Amino acid sequence: MVAAAPAATLAADRPPQFIVISFDGAREIEQWNRSRKLAREVGANFTYFLSCTNLIAAENKHDYDPPGNKRGASNIGFAESREDIAARLRQIWTARLEGHEIASHACGHFDGGGWNESQWKAEFHAFTTFLRDAWNANNIPFEPDGWTDFAENEITGFRAPYLAVGPGLLPALAAAGFAYDASGVSRDPERPSGGAVATFSLPLIPEGPKARRVLAMDYNLYVRHSAAFEQPSKSAEFEERAYQAFRAAFERQYEGGRVPLQLGFHFRLMNDGAYWRALEHFAREACRMAEVRCVSYRDLMRSSQADETSEARLQSVTD
Based on the structure, what is the number of domains in the chain? Predict the structure, then answer.
């Protein structure tokens, strides 16, 4: 294993090793607190891909009209109560103030692989509307100053539910002002692609005794390990396998080309929390290393753009 480097300046000939940790759905309040505590502990910023039906009370579900589905439908349900929504809104705002990124996971967690551009635009409009109006629509007092601007202008990242994309998605993302889409899948860690909307891809990482590749996301490990059925008696075994897979994928990049490593999670605790414990173990080791930066997708994009600007300036001087 790579030993943690002492506190020092970054080696001049080595870029930092970026790690991007993200969470899809962002529902359970306990997991908001747990993830934010981990971030403070290890000096990390995370990306939270929010599903907007978690800001809609069940009694108001018919306010949501999802593309290609009946009004009031959702694959992930709706918020339990207005008190539940209030707690989630406070978590969202606090996380933002702490430097984390809030991004979009659409609303009702539908498979939009067959949606056209207009349908995606409708879903993005719904997300912005329900996020912007969440305090007033649910009669929750003390909306923070700046909330409307945050909801309308700061959400620049997206990940599609089920990672289901189609030809209508990227044009809709560009039209809606998104900076990136994190719905891709790649064999190995890859740097983001360029274009009007940058695209990020979760890698397939070797895992288990036979080092078979699996998507670097907790749900896919859950399917691999227990066919998506809870096996709490094997939780420690699954935790160790996940940790070893994360660590090995990290070491290949840290010792090699330093391509950013992306890892995806959900707020649901699968196999008795095995994958969250593996994440915490891994982050407490890797994120504290001197040449490692655990950042949000937004932070990584900004760093990449800054590097491109510096390279362009250097090139103009040498030409």
Answer: 1
